[in-house]
Design brief:
Elements: H1 3-20, E1 23-31, E2 36-44, E3 57-61, H2 70-74, H3 78-85, E4 88-92, H4 111-126, E5 136-141, H5 143-154, E6 161-165, H6 180-184, H7 191-196, H8 199-203, E7 212-216, H9 224-231
Parallel strand pairs: 3-4, 3-5, 5-6, 6-7
Antiparallel strand pairs: 1-2, 2-4
Amino acid sequence: MQLKQLILAICLFLIFNSGRAGSVDTITVFSNAMQKTIKCVVISPSNYKKSSKKYPVLYLLHGYGGNYARWINVAPQLKDQVDALQLLIVCPDAGYGSWYADSPADSAVKYETFTATELVNYIDSNYHTLTDRGHRAITGLSMGGHGALFLAARHKNQYGAAGSMSGLVDLSFFPKGMNFQHLFGDSTVNAANLKKYSATTALESLKNRELALTIDCGIYDFLIIPNRALHQ
């Protein structure tokens, strides 16, 4: 192949592939439970707007201290993945440290209700989605990993699959943890809340083959201990 032909081929390849990248939109969803609007990123395939087909949805949750834009900023390749996998990815905001819970100590924090119910209903009402649980999955990193397992186990009618990446799956493993006192009350007086709101406890309700699960944690991550216990 001559140099000019090679350059032309490379240019065409780049144009073709850049044109196929999925689109990224930031939307606001009103939460009746919390009486406020919440930002979310929705990543859709490049053919979404031109197609009448319905798509599976993956809910991708951020970690502690993150926000709705965290995933697309650190993993821009997600725009390519939605094209390859033909699905929607939804990244909701969950505040600085809500742990995706309806707080028993602060009635203003209801991110379980928002994420598992209000947001799912909004996405299914405003996007071309496959609305059965078999085409809806949830996963996340750290706080989001905990949230994904916690929500999926407590809302089995919503999700057919769930995953955790380096998740703090047992809140009692880190009792003085991030924002815990505000959300769940003093860890000495209200120690039972940390157990009640842990993914490990929520998953105990599952029956065999009721939910497809994946757990991922590095062996040098201090959270490998509760993750191995959960696996067992």
